[in-house]
Amino acid sequence: MTEGIGAPEKDGRPVVQAIAAVGLFAVVVGGLWAQSKFVHQKSVTSEPAACSKSTDRLPARYISGARLCKALNRPDLPALLGTPGEQAESASGSGDWITLAGGGKIADPDATVSLDTYTVKLSASYEDLTVAEMGDLMGDARKTTVMGHPAVLYSSPTISIGFNLGGGKATTGPGGTARCVLVSKHAKDDGEGTFEVSIWRQDDVLPDDTALVRAAERVLPTVPGWTGS
Q1: Beta strands, E only, the chain
Q2: CB of 87 within 8 A of CB of 115?
Q3: DSSP secondary structure letters along 115-166
Q4: Does the residue 6 lie in any domain?
Q5: pLDDT in tens, the chain (229 residues)
Q6: How far is the CA of 56 from the CAs of 2, 62, 94, 109, 111, in angstroms?
Q7: Is there a domain that residue 188 lies in?
Q8: Can you tell me the distance from the alpha carbon of 135 to that of 160, in angstroms, rounded to the nearest whole number?
Q9: Beta bridge partners of 114
């Protein structure tokens, strides 16, 4: 018997793999590492899941995974996603570094909340790139705004991770598609950091952009570092 889940290829943001000092794209290996961050576990109680203890290894100048989880794991998240009868089944945050191929490091704080239909990820980015520049690196990016902030909508493939419950082995393969919205922290597209909200469905059906943007509009203003229009 096997059990499957989906997780965005690490990292869901293509640009976080991209811009090292020499401007080359780095290859970040995700597979089983993503398993530890996105494994889908049902709550054993009738109450929505609380944020698990966060592993935060970043300096204080970066937002923590715990703070991102607190912002994302809000009571109305299921309603914002269009699934009001559901509740959070797992919630976690992490603040760590991504090491690029050239040896450079990029801060990578994020949080993930899983429901029965959707999984939602909130992350902060500190690359010195504007949203417009990041959008140019994505093949299907569509420019938009979120509460007056420059943004781009794009798709990201996910990894499907299967577990052999009897043999203890895991397998990986192509999963469904995540929809992501990358938003400037400031009303001006100044290249001083971005937030990203991503959603994907457990059944691999293409997620609803309306639900994605609706969730982003409610979550992002509660995250430290967001400035008003």
Answers
A1: 2-8, 55-56, 90-99, 105-114, 118-125, 142-146, 149-164, 170-184, 194-201
A2: yes
A3: -SSEEEEEEEE--S--HHHHHHTSTT-EEEEETTEEEEEEEEEEEEEEEETT
A4: no
A5: 333 345 555 444 444 433 322 222 222 222 223 333 434 344 344 578 999 988 899 999 999 999 999 999 999 999 999 999 999 999 999 999 999 888 999 999 999 999 999 999 999 999 889 999 999 988 789 999 999 999 999 999 887 666 566 666 676 766 789 999 999 999 999 999 999 999 999 998 999 999 999 999 999 999 999 998 6
A6: 32, 10, 6, 8, 11
A7: yes
A8: 26
A9: 90, 119
- Among all chains, which residue has been given the structure tokens 């009738």? 46
In CATH, what number is assigned to the domain containing residue 216?
3.40.1000
Of 214, 192, 220, 224, the C-alpha closest to 78 is 214
**For the chain, what is the domain count?**
1
Give CA separation, 45 vs 4, 85, 87, 90, in Å: 22, 16, 11, 11
Task: Tell me which residue range forms the domain holding 210.
Answer: 57-156+177-222
Q: Is residue 32 one of the residues assigned to a domain?
A: no
CB 34 within 8 A of CB 220: no
Q: What is the DSSP letter of 204?
A: -
Tell whether 133 is covered by a domain.
yes
Tell me which amino acid residue 229 is.
S
Instruction: Find tokens 């990358």 and name the residue.
Output: 182
CB 195 within 8 A of CB 122: yes
What lies within 8 Å, CB to CB, of 38 at 6+ separation is 5, 6, 7, 8, 112, 114, 119, 121
Structure tokens at 40: 């889908």
